[in-house]
Amino acid sequence: MKKIVLKILVLAFIAVGCQQKKQTEINVAENNEQMKSNFDLKSDYQDFKTKMTELDTLKVWIDHSVCTYQGEERLLITKKSDSIKILSEFKDYDEQNPEWQKIFEKSITENDTTWDFGNFMERNKSRINSDDNEYVKIEIKNGEQKMKFVTKGLVDLNTFMAEYGTMMRKLYEPKKRQIYGVPLITETELINEE
Description:
By secondary structure, the chain is α+β, with helices and mostly antiparallel strands. It is built from six helices and six strands. Strands 4-3-2-1-5-6 form a six-stranded antiparallel sheet, covered by helices on one side.
């Protein structure tokens, strides 16, 4: 009789344990589903500051090379609550032992209007080309999603990089390295100075 009661108890514990395991698996699956981001780089890039989640990380590579100069920058853009964190690092290949050097790290609100990187990408959407690997000046990744901005010719390259530099100087004006160039003086400004 004790053996029968013992067997019934063991079977009851197994049944309860299996039921709890199934419920745990369901909870884990639901949590994983809730933790997926709906951010789509190709359709949400203009409003990335508000549309990306804490699960998204934008990795941006910028080729600053022009003619004989060789340099590149990388940005790491993450989100925490309602703020965007931008980390910029630069590697100057004209140096003897080029290494990544931190240029700045800055947090801005997701509603910030000073740094218009999303609008910069929208203005240059005609440059997006996923097939061209030869003239890529900016590449943006979010997980497996990727966007490449290309230029054609030296004038186009200089125009594009001048616009990029102007936009980045609004976010951060480097004191040591002028990797974003210097502000251009317009003809009107020259005339007014005289």
